[in-house]
Amino acid sequence: MMTSPLAPDRAPVGDIAAALTVLDTRLKSIGSGEAAGEDELRSRYLESFGPLGAAAVLDGACTLIYVYMQWLEDAYSSQDEDVMEHVVPWVLGTMKLMKVVDDEGIPTMAALLVAPVVGISPTLWRREHGPWRKEEMTALEVAMVLLGLRVNELTGDDDSAVRLITDLLDQFEADDEAGDEADDGA
């Protein structure tokens, strides 16, 4: 069986830690209701990465979107419901109501939300259709945060979305260390 050139296993994961930091900061500010001054601090944080680092953070955000959509697809299908019916319209509808999200970024987010459900990497889909545009930056962050909020809501745990990712990273690190030990023993 031939795999798609846009298959998730071909995509770079990017800087998941930086994307997760942005997500965690946003989720905490939403939970506390205190977001004053955060936008400037977040902008300076992201600018500190430079162009290559910023691209890695965008890839990391796409990885988070991929993982959350996969998790949400499993959660909804276990209840005989469809993630495409419940999550995608909710995220896009919420984004349309937000004055900070440029309308031009919403169609791209629709594609990024659907991509994981149909077995396509959001990162590679975006690359296939051109470079990131400024109009999409806020929409990407908002989509990532809304998915994190939905994961937290479904689990009833305000830290579940972040923990889901950190647990996966810990698992990959443990698997990698086990693989290194097996290689050293051979």
Structure keywords:
186 residues, mainly alpha, 8 helices, 74% helix
Task: Tell me the layout of helices and strands.
Blueprint: H1 16-32, H2 38-47, H3 50-77, H4 83-97, H5 106-117, H6 122-128, H7 134-155, H8 160-185
Helix pairs in contact: 1-3, 1-7, 3-4, 3-5, 3-7, 4-5, 4-7, 5-6, 5-7
What does this structure look like?
The chain is an all-alpha fold. The two termini are 31 Å apart. It has one domain. The longest helix is centred in the middle third of the chain and has 28 residues. The protein is built from eight helices and no strands.
Number of strands: 0
Question: How far do the termini sit from each other?
Answer: 31 Å
Total tally of structural domains:
1
Globally, the shape reads globular
Short description:
With 186 residues, the chain is mainly α. 74% of the residues lie in helices and 0% in strands.
